[in-house]
Specification:
The chain is an alpha+beta fold and 171 residues long. It folds into 2 domains: 5-100, Homing Intron 3 (I-Ppo) Encoded Endonuclease, Chain A; 137-166, no CATH class. The protein has helices at residues 5-13, 46-54, 84-89, 94-100, 127-133, 137-148, 150-170; strands spanning 15-17, 24-26, 30-31, 34-35, 37-39, 42-44, 62-66, 79-83, 115-117, 124-126. Bound molecules: zinc ion (2 copies).
Length: 171
């Protein structure tokens, strides 16, 4: 497809070029994590437009792979045309993206010593977050120990009673 000068201008007006990773972040509409742009009434993927505008026609049967693993990036230097199979192997998948993550959702580094694997699957989990939730084996044991002391048991029961009273009032 021939990309017009006007489309290229629009394309470039909607990216934020960041130093560091060199990615051109798409700042406009997203669809399923990827940019989207309306060209002549058709919804187009900006990274495909970028590839075709700056590098060339995408050969039949090939798909565009983000070498930078950043799906919103449209820097043509970060894009390459590959077969669908290579694209999947290269990890444009949820699992691979998770694996490529360097930090958890709260920003703790996912490095050795701060990673555990849950028996429920789901890949690497953050130990720091587990500590914050009070879900470490030690924290659970501590709660069990606390409740094992009769005086604490009474205090706990009283706390629960107050908690229920409070919640009844608010409903
Ligand atoms: Zn990039
Ligand atoms: Zn965390």
């Amino acid at each position: 497809m021939e990309i017009s000068e006007a489309v290229i201008d629009r394309l470039l007006s909607k990216v934020e070029k960041r130093e560091g990773d060199g990615c051109w972040y798409w700042t406009d509409h997203l669809n399923r994590g990827y940019g989207q742009m309306n060209v002549g009434g058709k919804q187009m993927k900006p990274y495909r437009l970028s590839y075709e505008a700056f590098i060339g026609e995408i050969p039949d049967g090939l798909v565009i792979d983000h070498m930078c693993r950043n799906p919103t990036c449209i820097n043509p230097m970060h894009l390459r045309a590959v077969t669908q199979r290579v694209n999947i192997l290269c990890g444009d998948t949820f699992a691979a993206r998770k694996k490529a993550q360097t930090h958890c959702l709260r920003g703790h580094p996912l490095v050795d010593g701060n990673i555990y694997y849950s028996t429920g699957g789901g890949g690497r989990r953050c130990c720091e977050c587990r500590r914050m939730r009070g879900q470490t084996p030690e924290a659970k044991q501590k709660r069990r120990d606390y409740r094992a002391i009769p005086a604490n048991k009474e205090r706990e029961a009283e706390r629960m009673r107050l908690w229920h009273l409070k919640n009844r009032r608010s409903t």
